[in-house]
Design a protein that fits this description.
This protein has about 240 residues and is mainly α. The protein is built from 9 helices and no strands.
Length: about 240
């Protein structure tokens, strides 16, 4: 259908510089999602990927955008639309569009590209676990004797080791391998700690915000995917 042209690669990509334009692209993404969900079963559309990865992120993006747009419309910032040109919303919308594109064109994506994507995701996840563990050790160096610090260090080290224990994809990978959200905070012991009373309310809220930001762009995709498939270069925050 013609509306799929909206997420095809093109050099003159529309910039959602106003709330109205952004809403149009959100609406287009919803149309594309619904079309995929209602395709005949013989098309073998990965419905679980749509429901687990795309749908919740599109819903969350739409909710966050509307809350932000509504708040700004009732403030002195209401006439300023530059906030829509920042990486926060641009990247999240492009992420949804890329996922829809990859699912729609799944049979056209080479096995080698799926392999590159899956291994990049795994390497990025390992790096994130490594970075989190080292950052925590550095940040708590002056407080190493405080209650709970060593427990967190042990958990983060375990998370890092588990990440590096996962083997690379060697011979092949497919769409299911490339659509695996990887959450650095989703270690059972770390999750229990984050939800426990040993962390004060503000700390838990701060961690929840960080996790939400990370998961908004999961599963992650390398920069070349955006540039190759939908003609977009991910920007900063």
């Amino acid at each position: 259908m013609t509306h799929w042209m909206s997420i095809s690669k093109r050099s003159e990509r529309e910039t959602p510089s106003t709330p109205a334009k952004f809403r149009r692209r959100l609406g287009q993404a919803e149309l594309n999602l619904n079309e995929l969900k209602t395709m005949p079963s013989d098309e073998k559309v990965p419905i679980d990927v749509l429901e687990d990865c795309v749908e919740p992120r599109l819903k969350s993006l739409k909710s966050d955008f509307e809350k932000d747009a509504n708040a700004r419309s009732h403030s002195f910032l209401g006439s300023d639309s530059k906030w829509l040109q920042t990486g926060r919303y641009q990247n999240r919308l492009a992420h949804v569009e890329l996922m829809l594109y990859l699912i729609r064109r799944r049979s056209e994506i080479s096995r080698n590209d799926w392999l590159k994507i899956a291994n990049w995701q795994l390497a990025t996840y390992r790096e994130s676990c490594h970075r989190l563990q080292l950052s925590y050790v550095k940040a708590t160096k002056p407080h190493a004797e405080l209650p709970g610090v060593q427990s967190v260090r042990t958990i983060l080290l375990s998370t890092r080791k588990a990440a590096y224990a996962q083997r690379d994809y060697v011979d092949s990978a497919d769409i299911y391998d490339a659509f695996v959200p990887r959450n650095v905070f989703d270690h059972a012991d770390l999750r229990e700690l984050l939800n426990s009373d040993s962390m004060d309310l503000k700390a838990r809220e701060d961690m929840a915000k960080i996790e939400a930001g990370v998961m908004a762009l999961q599963p992650a995709f390398p920069k070349w995917c955006y540039e190759t498939y939908i003609g977009y270069t991910p920007g900063g925050k």
